[in-house]
Amino acid sequence: MKKHWWHSATIYQIYPKSFMDSNGDGIGDLQGIISKLDYLEKLGITAIWLSPVYQSPMDDNGYDISDYEAIADIFGDMSDMEELLNQANQRGIKIIMDLVVNHTSDEHAWFIEARDNADSPERDYYIWRDQPNDLVSTFSGSAWEYDDKSGQYYLHLFSKKQPDLNWENEELRHKIYDMMNFWIDKGIGGFRMDVIDLLGKLPDQKIRENGPKLHDYLKEMNQASFGKYDLLTVGETWGATPEIAKQYSNPDNQELSMVFQFEHIGLQHKPDRPKWDYAEGLDVPALKRIFNKWQTQLELGQGWNSLFWNNHDLPRVLSIWGDTGIYREKSAKALAILLHLMRGTPYIYQGEEIGMTNYPFEDLEQLEDIESLNYAKEALEDGKDLSQIMDSIRVIGRDNARTPMQWSNAAQAGFSETEKTWLPVNPNYQTINVAAALEDPDSIFYTYQALVALRKEAEWLVDADFELLDTEDKVFAYKRYTEAETYLVVVNLSDQEQAIKLTCPVQETIISNTDIKQVVNTQTLKPWDGFCVKVARP
């Protein structure tokens, strides 16, 4: 298998509105990111996945783009973007742009022309019908919006201000590839591809994901843009299986580097229930089955995994599966060790490396997320109690990931000098912040730093096979092994002691949040113990 830089990389996701405010308007911006590049260099990450900074009316926080080749005023301008690219590259950090091409904003010039002139070429850039069917928007309600001006309905699988693009139109596809090449020429390191599995949709047949022409489009995209370069491309694919992931990421297919699959994230919800019916606690045996499937069925050379707990659409992993009390730091380290030593490219979401948690939202006025607000509106209309609605949003809502980054114990967590930030700062910032983490040599930050460094140095993290071990339900243990070496990873995903059988002599401790000798001597894991050791071959 040909090795690429991203096989040994760790990617750090920045949500620009919430990372660092440089001008005191309560909103993060590009100059704010530039001011924190030294911090990211210290963490050691290889690349930044930058959530959208394109021009946008911000109906969905930038995932509704009105101009792909301009920067939103709230973030700065193109000169700021070029400075970020230059400053990051000087530190050996690549910039991965968030590519949102399933839909645009309804304020994009294409859609304005399409709406104004039914005979224009741009009309066919979008999906219009005389009558709607019963397709439902991800953000609730019908996926069809009636347009008075033209007398037809247009498709929007998300907000009504995010009309879906018609990928069957060849002219549109090539305009998108031209735009991608514009950014490649700027010197970016690749693309994260938003809801990429929806591009082949067939709305009349109610096919949303994995339509029959999807992979044809991706092959064409590869050849017309990034395929000529060594760039990272990762697709967001909520419905992927290992077999589908191979279609995307097998090098022979010439499509993408890897995909995000979300099967493990599904454990946050009750089976076959809406997103807002969240599961109580983590089903560890189910998590083991899912990760084992993805580690063993997406074989080396036939595809590649991405590894993540958090992103801008998900609750903080510590709040939903970890421990936010006395074991906050230890559980954060355990979850990191478990994930980062599997085969795949790890992703860190901003604040994960210091153990940020969900926000204790008290009322709807504190929210910004369109998905949460739409859910609340519909639930109230259905007679649901507001306290139940807020309980679901506090656990699972997307704004939990979007509260400002906690840099210090200064006012507004050092994120901004203004008295009102676009989302409120979590009140636990006085103890959970970057400054405190950097001063404590035993902090979560330094565990993440060590894992990032290990990923760069240890060839076995790319090449070694994976074997899930039979353990107590709450213990997740696996081996990574080559012909010459065997590494054992063990994590107790609970706040209770668990029995463990360690039969192979420990030769070396690679990383740990506990006393390995005590574990070996007692054959017992304390709450949230997690470690990786090199062991003798059986």
Concise summary:
The chain has 538 residues and is of the alpha/beta class.
User: What spatial form do the alpha-carbon principal axes imply?
Assistant: globular
- Roughly what percent helix? 25-40%
How big is the Rg? Answer: 23 Å
- The DSSP helix count reads 17
Strand order of the largest sheet: 11-10-9-5-2-1-13-12
Percent of residues in β-strands: 15-25%
Query: Could you list the spans in which at least 5 consecutive residues all have pLDDT below 50?
Result: none
Number-wise, the strands total: 20
- Give a quick account of the main beta sheet: strands, pairing sense, barrel closure: 8 strands, parallel
User: What is the mean pLDDT?
Assistant: 97
- Could you give the distance between the termini? 28 Å
The secondary structure category is alpha/beta
Annotate the secondary structure layout.
Blueprint lengths: L10 E4 L1 H4 L10 H6 L1 H7 L3 E4 L3 E2 L11 E5 L6 H13 L3 E6 L9 H8 L11 E2 L14 E4 L4 E4 L14 H17 L3 E4 L20 H11 L7 E5 L5 H8 L8 E3 L23 H14 L8 E2 L9 H4 L7 H13 L4 E5 L20 H12 L4 H11 L37 H6 L4 H14 L2 H4 L1 E4 L6 E7 L4 E7 L5 E2 L6 E7 L3 H7 L1 E2 L4 E6 L3
Parallel strand pairs: 1-2, 1-13, 2-5, 5-9, 9-10, 10-11, 12-13
Antiparallel strand pairs: 3-4, 6-8, 7-8, 14-15, 15-16, 16-20, 17-19, 18-20
Helix pairs in contact: 11-15, 12-13
What does this structure look like?
The chain is of the alpha/beta class and 538 residues long. It contains 17 helices and 20 strands. The strands form five sheets. It has an eight-stranded parallel sheet with strand order 11-10-9-5-2-1-13-12. Strand 7 and strand 8 (152-155) form a beta hairpin. The two termini are 28 Å apart. The model has no long low-confidence stretch (mean pLDDT 97).
